Amino acid sequence: MTESTAFTVACAQTDPVIGDIDANIAMTESAIREAAGLGASLVVLPECASGGWAFTDIDESRRAAQRVDDGPTIEAWSSLAAELGVWVCGGFGEIDGDHVFNSAALIGPEGVASVYRKVHLWNTENDAFTLGDRGFGVVDTPLGRIGMMICYDAWFPESVRSLALQGADLVLAPSDWVPNPRQQPGPSLAQIMTMSAAHSNQVYVAASSRVGVERGQPFIGSSVIVDHEGWLLAGPAPATEAIITAVIDPIGSRTDRADNPFNRPLGDRRPEAYTSSK
Amino acid sequence: MTESTAFTVACAQTDPVIGDIDANIAMTESAIREAAGLGASLVVLPECASGGWAFTDIDESRRAAQRVDDGPTIEAWSSLAAELGVWVCGGFGEIDGDHVFNSAALIGPEGVASVYRKVHLWNTENDAFTLGDRGFGVVDTPLGRIGMMICYDAWFPESVRSLALQGADLVLAPSDWVPNPRQQPGPSLAQIMTMSAAHSNQVYVAASSRVGVERGQPFIGSSVIVDHEGWLLAGPAPATEAIITAVIDPIGSRTDRADNPFNRPLGDRRPEAYTSSK
Lengths: 278, 278
What we know:
By secondary structure, chain A is of the alpha/beta class. The first copy, chain A, contains 7 helices and 14 strands. Chain A has helices spanning 21-37, 58-63, 72-84, 125-128, 157-165, 189-201, 254-258, and strands at 7-12, 40-44, 87-96, 99-108, 111-117, 138-141, 144-148, 170-175, 204-209, 213-214, 217-218, 224-226, 232-234, 243-248.
């Protein structure tokens, strides 16, 4: 009998206080403990869960940012991961020299496993953050091969494709989804982008979005957990500090995904036929 | 005062008879005339509307296929386009030497403007057709810059991206959409792929899918017309021989699309950050 590779993933929506690292550590600690209590082995927090998002410029975003090596939020999440035996993925402002990146960390019981720097900055984010300089990466963990993206990255199909081409089983997407000015009844565009990315790459996606209003910008929550065929397992969450969970099996699904004649999105690609701007 | 560049596009669902070119010419003629009567300047027909789809092998598909130069379906659609002053886009089996492609033609009042050969063959299609050998192309018409894809191509985000990078305003997608074995309540995956492609490329998409059952394979209809922000303008159509229409403005929307800070899917791309299998 094979050991099960399935586990519970949670998306925990929070409403960060801009600039208040301590308040946000307390808020995310509470969310992580609650999610662990629900059986989660992996807890995904929103984008910029450590310090808020709507900064005017880099000077201001830097005051709410931290280094990976000794940042207080990273240390708090690492301690919780070790104590509870869980993995945590969350967004934080990352200082590296003169730069402030809109980053996400993946932290396991033994510490930081991976840091991702948001590649696609949206709208006024360009004033407050530096463009991610490391592309997309996948890290091999006991839960599966995990990649990260952040919010607006999901609007670019190249993001999840880049991770899938590197063998990702699961994509984590800390997000601060905002209302679409022309939202129709039915799924949000964020959900549509997430489902299509999961389906067209046969990867699980867990997208955790914040709630609340920051400097006039409302956020929609609406977190979703989508399976490797693009279907909803949990969510969309309401626009409150909710936690959604689902059981997923990134490692166990590898054979099914590789052998699926109905949809073979990597095997049937034809790169020689594509127009590239590279 | 500027002349309006808006026009009505129609997606006309048909239920082709496999192998019966004459019956399908009559069926599509009726659909084209009806759509023109509804005010359509452009009528999109399903994939393989000329001769059916579920062929066993290339020998069989060849018997229902035709050359662009002198094929009876292409001639019939061209005559109708000239007579009615409309544009027609429809799928047909295309013979070129030893090859049979799953192709789509875009035909204007003055004749064939463009032929597209399906790049991504799905499942058993690989037994019955040759892989498209010309990639994706865009043609400049009085209605806007138009590209084509066929059905499963929409599962590959590279398809519409390739067309958008070539300046497409409008993508036409003759399709034979099939039921998904795990369909949830809400939009079909086909619709989700179409909406996400439109949104992430700021292009209109008109996807016309067939109905009926062919050799045991049912089709879902569910045609949609989606605007350049990814929202539904018409559809999903029922699984009957229905026609849906919408007014679209591919040329007139160019300025809005270029100046949109909310979503700048081409301008905010970062090709240097993407993993490529090329």
